[in-house]
Design a protein that fits this description.
The complex is a heterodimer. By secondary structure, chain A is α/β, with parallel strands linked by helices. Chain A has eight helices and nine strands. Helices cover 37% and strands 22% of the residues of chain A. Chain B has three domains: 227 residues, no CATH class; 214 residues, no CATH class; 57 residues, no CATH class. In chain B, helix 2 runs antiparallel to helix 11. Classes of the chains: A alpha/beta, B alpha+beta. The interface between A and B is medium-sized, with 27 and 24 residues. Bound molecules: adenosine-5'-triphosphate and magnesium ion. The site of magnesium ion has 4 residues of chain A, from helix 1.
C-alpha cells in the first residue's frame, strides 16, 4: 500500500474563473522505497500539485491520504515538520541564518531526537557536497546551487518518510546533479524513503523508477 | 526553547530595524516615566492638599427659605423682621451639642459680642454727636440716652425726634420719635469682641488675611487677653503689654484686657473709600472670655459662628441631617468648603490633565510609527513567515516568536528609558509643579508667621487642622514607584503588541505558498 495517495484530486486557484482548474481527477499512489519524477510543461501545475501533497494548499476537490489518513484531518504543521521533507524551487532558506543554522532550525522544529545537532547538520551538509567552510556562511553568501544543496540537507535533517523536491537540480552542473541524484537514490533504496522529484531534466528521468506526467 | 533562540538571533541579526524600534520605545518610555511621575506627584499634591485642608461645614441662613416666607410691600417690613427675630438664634450650647458628632474630627467656633469703652476711641470715619437734652421741668422729665442697645429686638429711638416748647413757667415736652426696628442679632457696641475657641478657629490668621505685626497671639483662651488691630492701636496709642478697658453699659461693669499682640488686616489694602478697615474695632480674644461676659450679663447680645471639621466628604449629608435631628432650625442651611477645596487643586489637576494628554498623544504617535516601521519591514518578514510555515512551525509558535522579539527589545529599552526618565522627571516635574510644591512647602512657615511666632510654633498646637503636619513634597524623584513601573510595563506590552501587529496579521492571513511565490 502506498504511503501517499491522491484520490480524485482537483485544484483551482481561488481567484481563477470557476471552471478553470489547474488539474482535475488526479488519482495516484506513491510508495516507499521508490523514486518518482513528475514531468510537465511550465505552468502545467507541478508546483501546485506539490503544494497539495505538502499540505500548504487544500484540494478544491478530492483527497490526499498520508499513511491512510486524510490530510484535511491531520495537524499539517506536524506533518510538514516530521513526515515530509520539502525542497522548494526557490530554496526557501532563511537569509538571516547561516547554512548550518537553517539545518539545525528544522531539527529544532521537528523535535527530532539527535544528541549532537550541530554534528549531524555538519555531516548532512558534507553529504550534499559542501564543506565545513560553507556551513557558517549566511545563506545569501552562497550560490544558487549551494543554497539548493543546503535545502536538501535541511529536508533530510529530521529523517522524514517522504522527500519532495521541486526542480532540485535545476541550478546544478552535471557532476553535482549526479551526486545529488545519488543521494536520493540511496535514500530510496537503502532507507526506504519515498522520493518525489519535479523536473524537466532527462538525466533525472533516467534515474527514477516511475515518471508521472502532468498535462 | 527554539522560539526564544530564534527571537534572540533575529534581534541580533536585524540590528537596523531593532535599533530603530528600540529608540522609539526608549523615547516613549522615557517620556512616559516623566509623565507618569508627574501624574503621581500631582496626585500626591492633591491628596496632601486635601489632607491639609479639612472639609469644614458651616451654618448659614437659608435665604431662599427665608424669602419664601417673607411678605412683600412697605407694610410687611416690620412683620418680616419680627418673623426673622423669631427664628431661634444658634446658641453656644447648641453648637457644643452639634459638635458632639461621630462625623466630625473636631469643631471650633467664634463666639462674638460687643462692648463699649469710655477710655478707647472707636476707629470710625463717621460719628454722631450726642445732643444733650436732659431737661427737668416741673411738669415732666425726659432722659435720652445714646449708645448701648443690648436688648433683644428692642425698638430704639433714632433721629432725635423730640421737640421741647417752653413758655415762661410751664414746659411742654412734645416727643416725636421714629421707631427703628432692627435685627436683634446685630452687635451694637462700639467694639466687636471675637472669642475664638481655638487657633484653628482663627481662619483669618490661618489664611493670612490678618497677620500679627507686633507681639503675638493670645495664649490663654480664658484670660482677659486680647489682640487688637493696628488701626485701633495707633488711634489710641496702645502698644503690646498695655491694658484696655471695655465696658458693658447694661450692667455698668468694666473689663481690663491685656493687649498681647497687634494685628494687621491685609484684606483692605486696596480700599480707597474708607478711612478704617472694617476690622479696625475688632478685638480678638478667647471664647471662654465671652462665656464669662455672658455669665455676668445674660442679656448680652452674642452670636456664634461654628465650623465643624468633617471626617471626610462622604459624611456631609449624614452630618447635615444629624444637625436637623438635633434641632437645627429649618431656616438654616449647612454649607461646606468642598467647592473651594476642589477649585484650589484645579491647577494641579490641570498639570495632571496636561501630562495625561501628552502621554496619550505620544503613545498614539509612537504606535503609528512602530506600526509603519513594521509594515515597511513586512515584505521581508512575510518571506520569513512563509519559510517558517513550510518547515512546519505553527501559527501560534510563530506569533509567539515575533511577539517575543519585540518584547525583548521593549523590555530592554523600557528599562533604560525608565531609568533615564527617573532622572529627568525631577527637573521636568519640578518646573511644571513648581508653584504647587512651593505652596505646599511654605504653608507651615507662613501660618506660623501669621500668628507672630516666627520659626518656632511655641506652645501652639494646630493638630486637627493638620496644617503643620503636611508631608512636605520638595522632590519628586521618589515618585517613580511601583505604580509607575506597573503602568510603564502595561505601556510596554501595549507597544510590543502594536509593533508586532503587522506581522501577526500576516501570520494569520497569508498562505505560505503565496508568500513564497512572491519571492521567486
Ligand atoms: N496564485 C495563483 N493564482 C492563480 N493562478 C495561479 C497562481 N499560482 C499559479 N497559478 C497558475 O497555475 C498554473 C500552475 O502553476 P505552477 O506554478 O504549478 O506551474 P509549474 O508547473 O510549477 O510551472 P514551472 O515549471 O514554471 O515551475 C499556472 O498556469 C499559473 O499561471
Ligand atoms: Mg514550478
Amino acid at each position: 500500500m502506498g504511503i501517499l495517495k491522491l484520490e480524485n484530486v482537483a485544484y483551482r486557484y481561488k481567484d481563477a474563473p470557476k471552471d478553470k482548474y489547474v488539474f482535475k481527477n488526479i488519482n495516484y499512489e506513491f510508495e516507499q522505497g521508490k523514486m518518482y519524477a513528475i514531468k510537465g510543461k511550465s505552468g502545467s501545475g507541478k508546483t501546485t500539485l506539490l503544494s497539495l501533497i505538502t499540505g500548504l494548499e487544500k484540494c478544491t476537490e478530492g483527497h490526499v491520504f498520508y499513511d491512510g489518513k486524510d490530510l484535511k484531518k491531520m495537524n499539517l504543521d506536524k506533518y510538514r515538520n516530521t513526515e515530509i521533507g520539502i525542497v522548494f524551487q526557490s530554496y526557501n532558506l532563511l537569509p538571516r541564518l547561516t547554512a548550518i543554522e537553517n539545518v539545525i532550525l528544522s531539527m529544532d522544529v521537528s523535535k527530532v531526537k539527535v544528541t549532537n545537532k550541530k554534528q549531524k547538520a555538519l555531516e548532512l551538509i558534507k553529504s550534499v557536497g559542501l564543506s565545513e567552510e560553507h556551513c557558517n556562511r549566511r545563506i545569501l553568501k552562497l550560490s544558487g546551487g549551494e543554497q539548493q544543496r543546503i535545502a536538501i540537507a535541511r529536508s533530510l535533517s529530521y529523517n522524514p518518510k517522504i522527500i519532495i523536491a521541486d526542480e532540485p537540480t535545476g541550478n546544478l552542473d552535471k557532476d553535482t546533479e549526479a551526486e545529488i541524484l545519488g543521494i536520493f537514490k540511496h535514500l530510496a533504496k537503502d532507507e526506504n524513503k519515498c522520493i518525489i522529484i519535479v523536473t524537466h531534466s532527462q538525466n533525472v528521468c533516467n534515474e527514477v523508477d516511475v515518471i508521472y506526467e502532468l498535462k | 526553547m527554539y522560539i526564544l533562540k530564534n527571537s534572540l538571533i533575529s534581534i541580533i541579526r536585524n540590528k537596523g530595524r531593532n535599533i530603530l524600534i528600540g529608540i522609539i520605545i526608549l523615547v516613549i518610555s522615557c517620556s512616559a516615566t516623566v509623565t507618569l511621575a508627574i501624574r503621581n506627584t500631582a496626585n500626591k499634591l492633591v491628596k496632601n492638599y486635601e489632607e491639609a485642608h479639612d472639609i469644614i461645614a458651616t451654618i448659614s441662613f437659608n435665604r431662599q427659605q427665608l424669602s419664601n416666607n417673607f411678605k412683600g410691600g412697605e407694610d410687611a417690613r416690620k412683620e418680616n423682621i419680627e418673623a426673622f427675630n423669631n427664628i431661634e438664634a444658634i446658641t453656644i450650647d447648641a453648637v457644643k451639642k452639634y459638635g458632639e458628632s461621630d462625623y466630625l474630627k473636631d469643631y471650633y467656633y467664634v463666639y462674638a459680642t460687643s462692648l463699649n469703652s469710655e477710655t478707647l476711641t472707636k476707629a470710625t470715619d463717621s460719628f454722631e454727636y450726642e445732643v444733650e437734652d436732659r431737661q427737668t421741668t416741673t411738669s415732666s422729665s425726659t432722659t435720652t440716652e445714646g449708645g448701648g442697645n443690648y436688648g433683644m429686638g428692642r425698638p430704639m429711638q433714632g433721629e432725635g425726634g423730640m421737640h421741647t416748647i417752653t413758655n415762661n413757667n410751664t414746659t411742654t415736652v412734645i416727643t416725636r420719635s421714629k421707631e427703628i426696628f432692627q435685627s436683634s442679632r446685630n452687635l451694637t457696641g462700639d467694639f466687636e469682641l471675637d472669642g475664638y475657641s481655638s487657633y484653628d478657629a482663627m481662619t483669618n490668621f490661618v489664611d493670612g488675611t490678618y497677620q500679627i505685626s507686633d507681639g503675638e497671639m493670645i495664649t490663654d483662651f480664658s484670660n482677659l487677653e486680647c489682640v487688637i488691630s493696628s488701626e485701633l492701636a495707633s488711634l489710641n496709642e496702645i502698644s503690646v503689654g498695655d491694658t484696655i478697658t471695655l465696658k458693658n453699659d447694661n450692667i455698668e461693669k468694666t473689663y481690663d484686657f491685656t493687649v498681647k499682640g497687634i494685628y494687621k488686616d491685609n484684606s483692605n489694602e486696596n480700599d480707597s473709600i474708607n478711612m478704617y478697615s472694617p476690622s479696625a474695632n475688632q478685638i480678638i480674644t478667647g471664647s471662654s472670655v465671652i462665656e464669662k461676659l455672658v455669665e455676668d450679663d445674660s442679656s448680652l447680645v452674642t452670636n456664634v459662628t461654628p465650623s465643624f471639621i468633617l471626617k471626610d466628604e462622604g459624611v456631609i449629608e449624614a452630618f447635615s441631617s444629624e444637625l436637623k435631628e438635633k434641632g437645627l432650625n429649618e431656616y438654616y442651611a449647612v454649607n461646606t468648603n468642598l467647592d473651594q477645596i476642589e477649585s484650589a487643586t484645579k491647577s494641579i489637576e490641570n498639570v495632571k490633565t496636561f501630562a495625561t494628554t501628552f502621554l496619550i498623544i505620544t503613545l498614539i504617535i509612537a504606535s503609528i510609527v512602530l506600526f509603519v516601521i513594521n509594515m515597511i519591514n513586512i515584505r521581508e518578514r512575510k518571506y520569513e513567515i512563509g519559510v517558517f510555515r513550510t518547515i512546519g512551525v505553527s501559527k501560534f509558535k510563530l506569533t509567539m516568536q515575533f511577539v517575543l522579539e519585540i518584547l525583548i527589545v521593549s523590555i530592554i529599552c523600557l528599562s533604560i528609558g525608565a531609568v533615564t526618565g527617573a532622572f529627568l522627571s525631577k527637573p521636568v516635574g519640578n518646573s511644571l509643579l513648581k508653584s504647587e510644591i512651593e505652596t505646599s512647602k511654605n504653608a507651615e512657615q507662613e501660618i506660623s508667621n501669621n500668628f507672630g511666632r516666627g520659626d518656632k510654633m511655641g506652645p501652639m498646637e494646630m493638630n486637627h487642622n493638620g496644617m503643620v503636619n503636611v508631608t512636605e513634597i520638595d522632590s519628586i524623584d521618589a515618585v517613580v514607584d511601583f505604580t509607575v513601573i506597573a503602568q510603564l510595563l502595561g505601556i510596554g506590552i501595549f507597544l510590543s503588541l502594536i509593533s508586532s501587529l503587522a506581522s501577526m496579521i500576516s501570520i494569520q492571513r497569508f498562505s505560505p505558498l503565496t508568500i513564497l511565490k512572491e519571492r521567486s
